Amino acid sequence: MCGIVGLWDTKRQWALEFLQTFIVKVSNALSHRGPDDCGMWSDEASGIVLAHRRLAVLDLSPSGHQPMRSASGRYIIIYNGEIYNFLDYRGEFPFLKGKSDTEVLLEACEAWGPVEACRRFRGMFAFALWDTFDRVLFLARDRVGEKPLYWGKVGTMIVFTSELKALHHCPGWKGTLCQKALSSYLQLGYVIDPLAIYEGFQKIVPGTVLEISSKGTETVHCFWDHHTLVRNSVLSTDSTQEALEKLEDLLLDNVERRMICDVSVGAFLSGGIDSGLVTAMMQHLQKKRAGDAVRSFSIGFDVRAYNEASNAEAVACHIGTQHKTIYMTGRDALDVLSQAYWDEPFSDSSQLATAFLCKQAKNHQVTVCLSGDGGDESFAGYTRYLATEVLLTRLNKIPLWLRKMVSVIGMHTPWICHRYGRIRKAIQVLPINDLLELYKEICTQYPVHGVWKSHLLGVPFPEDRLWHSVASMQYWDILTYLPGDILTKVDRASMAYSLEVRTPFLDKTVIEYGWTLPMHHRIYKGQPKYLLRKLASKWIPKFVAQDKKMGFGVPLAHWLRKDLRSWMESLLTPQSLESAGFNAKAIQNFWKLHLKRKADYSNRLWNTAMFLYWNKSKEKI
Predict the structure, then answer these.
(1) Which of 78, 167, 216, 345 has the highest count of CB atoms within 10 angstroms of its CB?
(2) Cα–Cα distance between 312 and 272 in angstroms, integer?
(3) Is 152 annotated among the ligand-binding residues?
(4) Is 78 annotated as a binding residue?
(5) 49 - beta bridge partners?
(6) 500: which strand partners?
(7) CB contact set of 150 (below 8 Å; sequence gap of 6+)
(8) Which domains does the chain have, with CATH numbers?
(9) Active site residues
(10) Name one GO biological process term (predicted).
(11) CA 573, CA 575: separation in Å to the nearest integer?
């Protein structure tokens, strides 16, 4: 995996030497994403400079060096990602010199055009492509947003990068916070795509290529439209057995493709079925090659309610991996916090565990790990899908006027609001009649009234509804929660330690297949992810395959009262809270109630603290 950065001084107001100096600073800020090599290319006549930091995974030789120029000399590319079907097309370009997927991608962009190349390739990627003939810039991002790519304008310059923090060195940088993005963070815990935390910047929309001409014209080309995909999907009439065989073949193919690399490969093995299935298939394929056992890694906690280590170890023993369980404490969380800087404010506390696990895997000389991310969205694994559907049905049986009255009374009853989190959430959703509005409220993790002094803007969720309520929620998650939270967490945590994470469930073929499944293959008799569980029962212990979904979380409430207490109190001072825009009195009251165990405000407090920590850390860059 890699880091990319570039700028285009369209009016050529700055000297090339100055721009190159700036790019070197930015590139150095991305060194953790690519410690193995670095390169820069520039064209003074056009005012463009491109830089690349390389984490060598395929073709470790200098032939994989970037920026890379096409054989004709017309195109220059800087690329972050992996193309898993590049070998299928390599034969079409017999003149290639190296063995990397970068070279295949580059020549394909010239032969077919960047939009068609993105359409044909399967993988995770973000790249910038410069046409030296027509002076046109292309910025592309993969289908679901596995790899980040930010872009924006600073003065007359167009700038783009893998990480926003790198642009703090940019001349003319203002760093004005985007209120829409800030509202998204405060309510969801992450900045929803395509927003970015700074005004004037945004993320490239997943599944698109942005074309910018020398005249300043901006054209967005879509090569993957999830709405069209879902609308055009035809539900399968296959029997359960036929569906299982197709899914098994599909996953085996995608796991095998993601094991192709020239460095050591491992697996993240939680106690869930997705990572268990991926790891079991890796071990099966490794045995066929007569290779060494797969190295698998899991994380454990001393707090029993959060500890899935025993399930992970049972899977590892069953399939025969070389397994390592690493236990994490609150002190380890402090170490992660001291080393990490989140590119944008981010308050999914499982980021701590993900980063710690990535660090440990890297310390064990593993450079690539496969994970089970993405299975819940495509195969309806979240328990909230069924719970939301049932809740809406029950709510509609109660008169609206009565629900509104109970909600108003309940929200003005302090002992309910402070002590009973689930009851508080239920009271908040009582007046809602619409599925999307209900789901937005459930996904809004931090809606405590009176915490933020300014008015919060609405979160821009997609408005489309599908043929079934569960399908609609899957669709909304794939467009919002998956790229904004899950994939952002994995990219930042893994890249902080120069580790590449690959996800078989996020291949286009798997996602497309998921949308053809009828609802009884997604949820059956109240059991989510039914088809995947059936398949997992063949590969991993049945008690794990049929176990209730636990979710990947950390004992945050416990840590805040123990090892993280001093760290939290250093942030939650009245001055820092008020200056950042929080209601200091309200936040400190939540903190007191949490410490006395009268309420669990860990998520609200963490959301607040992570914004303060991000705001403080960015000043040091």
Answers:
(1) 78
(2) 8
(3) no
(4) no
(5) 7, 42
(6) 368
(7) 160, 161, 162, 163, 164, 167, 196, 201, 202, 203, 204
(8) 3-224 (3.60.20.10), 232-379+475-546 (3.40.50.620), 383-471 (no CATH), 556-620 (no CATH)
(9) 2
(10) asparagine biosynthetic process
(11) 5
